[in-house]
């Protein structure tokens, strides 16, 4: 089992819709979770982090964490074409290593 | 601009060359990282430095040699690389908030696109 898994996509959503990106992890003791956005040809950019169960909102972005089910998701409301990118999930494991998922490619269609 | 710069942005080198990648962060952070990003593969952590001491080396071949002379600068020295080492090499930094406690909220530089011929 891979330590951090994401659907590779591409995930296509129409402009204005909600994009839902999911990430599952294997280490039950993981404590911190991060979402990075990476535009094609660019480096990853931190957009959200979450430590506690529940939801965390920042503008159009909401991170949701469910430690019991070992998944973390990122919702993007009112999706814009400029949101088209690869979204990387990263997990700080209980053995103090940050593991990145393979990323989900999102395409927002005008 | 994230406050992390990397040079060069592109590098083509032969298998017998020696070159170095440079990273500089202007964020006042005290932890720095080297990552390798290959096509279709997740980001791979190579090295971690905290307070200028190497705290992690993820079984990276010895042809990659890191150096951290101070908390703002990080180098990756390259020698006798293989074609499979061609990738995007990313530097990142973060802040250690307490002894041994790194936030892991990392800020990445633009990367160096390395091609080994």
Could you give the topology of this structure?
The complex is a heterodimer of chains A (110) and B (117).
Chain A: E1 4-6, E2 11-14, E3 19-25, E4 32-38, E5 45-50, E6 54-58, E7 61-66, E8 71-76, E9 85-92, E10 98-100, E11 104-109
Parallel strand pairs in A: 2-11
Antiparallel strand pairs in A: 1-3, 3-8, 4-5, 4-9, 6-7, 7-8, 9-10, 9-11
Chain B: E1 4-7, E2 10-13, E3 18-25, E4 31-37, E5 44-50, E6 53-57, E7 64-70, E8 73-79, E9 87-94, E10 96-98, E11 101-102, E12 107-108, E13 112-116
Parallel strand pairs in B: 2-13
Antiparallel strand pairs in B: 1-3, 3-8, 4-5, 4-9, 5-6, 7-8, 9-12, 9-13, 10-11
Plain-language structure description:
The complex is a heterodimer of chains A (110) and B (117). Chain A is mostly beta strands and 110 residues long. In chain A, 0% of the residues lie in helices and 55% in strands. In chain A, the strands form 2 sheets. In chain A, strands 2, 4, 5, 9, 10 and 11 form a 6-stranded mixed beta sheet that branches. In chain A, strands 1-3-8-7-6 form a 5-stranded antiparallel beta sheet, with no helix packed on it. The mean pLDDT of chain B is 88. Chain B is mainly beta and 117 residues long. Chains A and B meet through strand 4, strand 5, strand 9 and strand 10 of A and strand 12 of B.
């Amino acid at each position: 089992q891979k330590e951090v898994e994401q659907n590779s996509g591409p995930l296509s959503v129409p402009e204005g819709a909600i994009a839902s990106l999911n990430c599952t992890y294997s280490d039950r003791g993981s404590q911190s979770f991060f979402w990075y956005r990476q535009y094609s040809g660019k480096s990853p950019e931190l957009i959200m982090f979450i430590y506690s169960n529940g939801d965390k909102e920042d503008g159009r972005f909401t991170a949701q964490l469910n430690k019991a089910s070992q998944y973390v998701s990122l919702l993007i409301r009112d999706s814009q074409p400029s949101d088209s990118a690869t979204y990387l999930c990263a997990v700080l494991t209980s053995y103090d290593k940050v593991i990145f998922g393979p990323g989900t490619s999102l395409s927002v269609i005008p | 601009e994230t406050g992390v710069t990397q040079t060069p942005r592109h590098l083509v080198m032969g298998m017998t060359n020696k070159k170095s990648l440079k990273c500089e962060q202007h964020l006042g952070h005290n932890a720095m990282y080297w990552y390798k990003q290959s096509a279709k593969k997740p980001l791979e952590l190579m090295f971690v430095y905290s307070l200028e001491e190497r705290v992690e080396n993820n079984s990276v071949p010895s042809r990659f040699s890191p150096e951290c002379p101070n908390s703002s600068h990080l180098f990756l020295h390259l020698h006798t690389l293989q074609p499979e080492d061609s990738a995007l090499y990313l530097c990142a930094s973060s802040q250690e908030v307490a002894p041994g406690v790194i936030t892991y909220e990392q800020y990445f530089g633009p990367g160096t696109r390395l091609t080994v011929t």
